[in-house]
Every structure is written in C-alpha cells, then in structure tokens.
C-alpha cells in the first residue's frame, strides 16, 4: 500500500517527522507532497520547493521506507485540486492529513483519509518556528538535524528576517 502526505513544510519540523514515522508503520511506500511549491521568500513561505525537497528527503532517510518527494503547486480551483495532485504524484491508496480542507477534498474525491493526533502542537507549528527564526530564538531543537542543516546552508533565518523587514507591513505573519 502506498500513502500520500502533503504539507507546506515551511519548515519541515519534528511534528511532521513524527507523523511520517507513524505513517511509515501503516504503508509500504510513501509519497510526500511539497505543497504550495511555487511559493518562497515570504514570511509565511520562506523556503523554495527545492530547499524543502532537501529538508524532507534528508530527514526521512532514517526511516526504512521507499519515499518519493513531489513538489505540487497551488491551483485557483479547490474543486479540481485532488485531480491535480493525482496527476503529479505516483498513484496512492490512502492520504494522511490533519488539514480540514485537504481532508474534505480527498473525501469528496473518494480517497480514504487518515488523521493523526497533533504532536506537541504548542511548539511544533510552522508559524511558531518562523517567529523564532525572525526573533533569533531557538528553532533548531524543533526540527530534525538534517532539516536544520539545510536551513543553515541556505541562510534561512537571515532570509526570513530580511523578507519580513520588507513585507512585514502588509503581512500579519500567520
Ligand atoms: N505538530 C504536529 N503534529 C502532527 N501533525 C502536524 C503537526 N504540525 C502540522 N501537522 C500536520 O502536517 C501537515 C502539514 O502541515 P504544515 O506544513 O501546514 O505545518 P504547520 O506546522 O501547520 O505550519 P503553518 O503554521 O506554517 O501552517 C498538516 O496536515 C498539519 O495538520
Ligand atoms: N486549491 C489548491 O491549490 C489547494 C487546495 C488544498 C490544499 N492545497 C495545498 O495543500 C497543502 C496542504 O498543506 P498544509 O496542511 O500544510 O496546509 C498546502 O500547500 C495547500 O496550499 C492547495
């Protein structure tokens, strides 16, 4: 059985990693969708699809499961989004998500969806991590080591600080 799990992964953090670990127990192969693939260099979406591909690929290498990482751009039309995903991804039998819109769209398209409990959501949330990067706080302890290395390599914390200086007036950061 092949599973599919999509997120923006801005950045990929220990909550995502915990979810992947649980999914790996339920499927033989995994497709990880890099959502909003065209977005980068903003406060909400600082990292490029390629940077996120590296964060995810290097982090999941510790799990013993064949994994395909597929960037997927957003569409204007939610009603055809599942077809768009299916057109870009290896075929899958079950989707994993805790996002209500994603769950609804897959269920309407007849795809089985499995949810999992949120893992330490009080800190393991992309928004919280990005705020810590902007404020110079500790974000490194909340992401897998390989993801932290990718963020350091691309100067991610400096980038998000810099783009926040320029777009902070118009973006709330959520
Ligand atoms: N701590 C967590 N435990 C379990 N699942 C999580 C956790 N954080 C996010 N997820 C799930 O992972 C998927 C991808 O989430 P996403 O990339 O939007 O991360 P996020 O932490 O919610 O980020 P943001 O604050 O940027 O929206 C979603 O289904 C989301 O519900
Ligand atoms: N119409 C669309 O393009 C559409 C619909 C639902 C989800 N998505 C994407 O799927 C991803 C879902 O991941 P999150 O759970 O991280 O929000 C996001 O990148 C989101 O933009 C896109």
Entry keywords:
174 residues, alpha/beta, Rossmann fold, 41% helix, disordered C terminus, binds adenosine-5'-triphosphate, binds beta-nicotinamide ribose monophosphate
What small molecules are bound in this structure? Answer: adenosine-5'-triphosphate, beta-nicotinamide ribose monophosphate
The secondary structure category is alpha/beta
Q: With helices defined by DSSP (H or I, 4 residues minimum), what is the helix count?
A: 7
Distance between the termini: 35 Å
CATH class: Alpha Beta
Give the amount of beta strand, in percent: 5-15%
Q: Any idea what the shape is?
A: globular
Extract low-pLDDT stretches.
169-174
The CATH topology label is Rossmann fold
Q: Quick one: how many beta strands?
A: 5
CATH architectural label:
3-Layer(aba) Sandwich
The strands making up the biggest β-sheet line up spatially as 3-2-1-4-5
Sheet bearing the most strands, described?
5 strands, parallel
Mean pLDDT: 94
Q: What would you report as the Rg, rounded to the nearest angstrom?
A: 16 Å
Going by CATH, the homologous superfamily would be HUPs
Helices and strands in order, then pairings?
Elements: E1 2-7, H1 14-24, E2 29-34, H2 49-60, E3 67-71, H3 81-88, E4 94-96, H4 100-108, E5 112-114, H5 126-135, H6 145-153, H7 156-167
Parallel strand pairs: 1-2, 1-4, 2-3, 4-5
Helix pairs in contact: 2-6, 5-7
This protein binds adenosine-5'-triphosphate (ATP) and beta-nicotinamide ribose monophosphate.
Adenosine-5'-triphosphate binds next to helix 1 and helix 5.
Domain Cytidyltransferase-like: 4-132
GO cellular component, one term: cytoplasm
Pfam family, one: CTP_transf_like
